[in-house]
Amino acid sequence: MRIAAAASKPLNHLVAFEHKRDAYGFPVRPQHVQRYREYSDIYKEEEEERSDRWSSFLEDHSELNESLANGSSGDSHAPSSESKQEKEEEANKGAGDNLRTEKLGSDVTLDNASEEEGSSDAEKNVHRVQLWTEIRPSLRSIEELMSIRVKRKGDLSKGEQEAPKVKSLLSFDDAKSSKGASENDSEDEFYDVERSDVQDGSSSDSTSVSGIPVSVDASSAVSTCPWKEELEVLIRGGVPMALRGELWQAFVGVRKRRSKDYYQNLLAADSFGNSIEQGDVQHVDDKGSNTDSLAAVEKWKGQIEKDLPRTFPGHPALDDDGRNALRRLLTAYARHNPSVGYCQAMNFFAALLLLLMPEENAFWALTGIIDDYFNGYYSEEMIESQVDQLVLEELVRERFPKLVHHLDYLGVQVAWVTGPWFLSIFMNMLPWESVLRVWDVLLFEGTRVMLFRTALALMELYGPALVTTKDAGDAVTLLQSLAGSTFDSSQLVLTACMGYQNVHEIRLQELRSKHRPAVIAALEERSRGLQAFRDSKGIASKLYSFKQDPKSVLVDSSKASLTNGSLSRSESGSSNADEVLVSLTGDGEVDSVQDLQAQVLWLKAELCKLLEDKRSALLRAEELEIALMEMVKQDNRRQLSAKVEQLEQEMAEVQRLLSDKQEQEGAMLQVLMRVEQEQKVTEDARRFAEQDAAAQRYAAQVLQEKYEEAVAALAEMEKRAVMAESMLEATLQYQSGQLKAQPSPRSGNQDSPAKSINDQSPDPPQSRISLLARPFGLGWRDKNKSTTPEKLPENVSEEKKPAAEGKETDAEQKDAKVQDTS
Amino acid sequence: MATAGNKSINAKLVLLGDVGAGKSSLVLRFVKDQFVEFQESTIGAAFFSQTLAVNDATVKFEIWDTAGQERYHSLAPMYYRGAAAAVIVFDVTNQASFERAKKWVQELQAQGNPNMVMALAGNKSDLLDARKVTAEEAQTYAQENGLFFMETSAKTAANVKETFYEIAKRLPRVQPTENQSGMVLPDRAMDRAVSASCCA
After folding, report:
1. Is residue A518 less than 8 Å (CB to CB) from chain B?
2. Which residues in chain A have Cβ-Cβ distances shorter than 8 Å to B47?
3. Which residue from A42, A553, A759, B154 could staple onto B29, CB 3.0 to 4.6 Å apart?
């Protein structure tokens, strides 16, 4: 509580350090300052939103609350509703007002703190007033709900003998309590509940606590509560800073756990030295003897002292008063549960709780967390912590086989990193907002399930990045720094809660019981191994001293065995008798037997080591095999790629050929086309030629006909000529006959023509014959000629024409001659 | 495990020692060259890495800084198993921490890697007036047990780097083949993967 007060004091200090510290006063790592700034606005919005949601939720259930308040304490109704209003007002103020809220909540404390500077006697009383505060009544119903869990666990762990003791204490307290009216009320209320709990515990049957019907199974009671799911959703969405401290108390069931003056008496044991008071210190008696616990506490004292300044160093709220409170809290816990005592990590938990709630409340919350939630975690051997790591490893292996394979390959164990995560409950491992959100869910659920879910969610978020790392150092560094930058707390919590719902308490319990024997065995093995090592050293030194002075050892052992033997006669113990026999027969053998035993132990340890070596060798072999497979795969791939390349080359060649061929084909086609064109042209030409030929033939025919006509005409003319010749001959013959017989009267007349004819007469027959003969002969020859085949009709026709013409002219000449002559 | 390959060595190093002996402070000084008066208590273990160049190689230290409290002892084997080097730290102003250091040495001799390079660091040597363990005492013990001893001060940085440098020099250069192949194989596989993807 005083820390809370202190937190409100150095407000200016906080502002000055704002760039280095977050809203909770915790340092922000320099590399994350930028990201924190980005997210601080988001946080603020989220905080406002959730404050609204919470206040409306609490309003909705206010009737229920009031009925509960009525049920638990009859006449405290009026003040409780009043204070509720006040508190809800505070809740509505949201995140920005955290510090202010704390201040409001700790008003009483501030006053008391000043009072405290009075006498030491008064201080004790003040302590009692200031250290304990009830949570606001509006949260009472949640507290009731969660406390069912506490009571049941309490019953299981403490057993029934506890009940009457508490009862007697109660009566003692009731008699003693003489405070202000309101406080009286609240305490009565508290003890009413406590009493009913006790009844409940002793009867261990289904009864009703404060009006809520409760079945034996607390968890079923919790699950049957109508607004439990709504509450769960709200809690996963985050708890408003203003309500966080009180809600946490409600979750842990602080009020239920508290037994009055227990804390003060634990501390009083310190101030009054060794004088042990009666009363509540009996609780310590249950755990161990007073002297033991005190000795242990002395042992813890040094360690606590060392860790006080090393707990959130520089946090503005942890000033001298804060550290004193922390010291008291840790000391009280160490006395409360000497089997745990003080374990590093608790200092951080206690300090966080002190930041959120009054000192005694923090003590009971710490008790709840360490004794119930983390039972066996921080004890001397830390067995549960190791078991949880094995369980987590199995879960990670199951969920992220690829990641685990890679980590195995690098030689990284998941537990190296997750071990510290679990032990610190993510404090200093995640940004503070995320830590608190994880704590919200963890404390609400009352189990360590959230640890696993969060770790798995982180693996889910960062696994893909981890797979790219190339050595163990890089992998661990990356995981650490990524986890440290998980500012998106809502994403983290929702991934954890929604994505890993099948990671639940029952499953975890099964896995834990599966792995626990291995841890215990390893622990024993190790301690035995160490023992064996020491023994083996012992053997060596014994052998050495035996060599140096054999008698001394022999004498020692014989002395021992003799004394044992003398004792054994009265006791008649078989082992002692054996020793006596041994000592009688040979003194040295006892020692050698012990040596042998030691050697056996040592050999066992060696064997374990060998087995471990073998296991690691096997792992190594597997790794190598995988690597080999990969290499082979790579190799195959290379071969394949080579083949593909070859094929591609071939393909390219073929394609080239194909294109060549296509080109050729194109060329051929062109040629063909040209040829075709030519063909067409020639065809055309041929057709024209044919046409020409036909025309010429026709012309030839026509000419032939003409020729034939001409020939016919010629033949006729010849006939006529022949006729005319014959006629001429006949005339000539007649003329000659007339001339021979009588010269005709017309001889004169006829002389001139006759003379002209006579002039020609010496040769006229010949000339006439020749004249006649020539055209005849010619015609004859022509006739013969025309019978010869016509090769070139044109030529023929051309040749013929002049011939024909010639003939015609000849014929005309002849005609003319004939006419002349006739 | 320390691994040699192309003159770069990866070495797992573990720091052991009593509560408040100054393990984390030594690492902080070595890795970041910083010092804070009140170092937060280490829960479980913390990891750091730092590279150091020695004459013939670069050594990349993978440093596991373990929690000092006695009960965290049960987690220590997880961190010192397979470590190539260990720094056992004690506080020269605290006799009990020296006794605890001796226990660690004993445990490492029994359980640890037999080739482990072990250094004994007597920290807080700057607190001259409060000294409880003399340098001679520690030196004698170190010689008897095959460690090398350095008096360090994370506060003044005295001998901090020197201690790690000495370890780097003492790390075996030739590693067991088993481990060498362990690092070389994946590298090759990577190269091939790259080249294969180039070809394809």
Report:
1. no
2. 416-417, 473, 476-477, 480
3. B154
Search chain A and give the residue with CA nearest B107.
Answer: A530
Name the pairing type of β-strands B117-123 and B148-151.
parallel
Asked if the structure places residue A336 within a domain, the reply is yes
Residues from chain B contacting residue A30 (CB–CB below 8 Å):
none
Q: Which amino acid is at B119?
A: A
* B60: chain A residues, CB-CB within 8 Å: 471, 473
The CATH class of the B7-170 domain is alpha beta
Render pLDDT for A789-798 as a digit per residue (tens, 0 to 9).
444 444 444 4
Minimal-distance CA residue of chain A relative to B67: A344
Closest chain A C-alpha to B41 CA, distance in angstroms: 6
Q: Tell me the one-letter amino acid at B69.
A: Q
- Identity of the residue numbered A50: R
pLDDT at A617: 86
Report yes or no on A753 lying in a domain.
Answer: no
Q: Which domain holds residue A348?
A: 241-269+300-532
Nearest-angstrom CA–CA distance, A254 and A140? 12
B177 Cβ under 8 Å from any chain A Cβ = no
Beta strand pairing status for B8-17 and B57-66? parallel
Tens-binned pLDDT, residue by residue, of chain B (200 aa): 555 445 788 999 999 999 999 999 999 999 999 999 999 999 999 999 999 998 878 999 999 999 999 889 889 999 999 899 999 999 999 999 999 999 999 999 988 888 899 999 999 999 989 999 999 999 999 999 999 999 999 999 999 999 999 999 998 875 544 444 444 444 444 444 444 444 43
- Which helix (H) or strand (E) segment is B39 a member of? none
Written as one letter, the residue type at A595 is: D
Cα separation, A462 vs A483, in Å, equals: 8
Where do the domains of chain B lie? 7-170
Contacts of B43 in chain A (CB under 8 A): 344-345, 348, 420, 423-424, 427-428
Contact between residue A721 and residue A768 where contact means Cβ atoms under 8 Å apart = no
How far is A712 from A725, CA to CA, in rounded Å? 19
Q: A interface mutation test: which of B23, B31, B35, B43 has the most A CBs within 10 A? A: B43
Burial class (CB in 10 A: 0-12, 13-18, 19+), B161: middle
User: Is the model's pLDDT at A346 over the cut of 70?
Assistant: yes
Spatial CA neighbour of A439 closest among A160, A248, A249, A715: A248
CATH number for the domain spanning A376: value is 1.10.472.80
Smallest Cα distance from A347 to chain B, Å: 9
> Looking at this protein, which amino acid is placed at residue A442?
L
Dihedral, CA of residue B94, residue B96, residue B99 and residue B104, to nearest 10: -90
Residue A792: inside a domain, yes or no? no
- Taking alpha carbons only, the member of A144, A146, A157, A158 closest to residue A208 is A144
Sign of CA dihedral A783, A786, A787, A788: positive
Q: Is the residue at A810 inside a domain?
A: no
A663 burial type by CB count under 10 A (0-12 exposed, 13-18 middle, 19+ buried): exposed
* pTM tops 0.90, yes or no: no
A754 Cβ partners below 8 Å, 6+ apart? A747
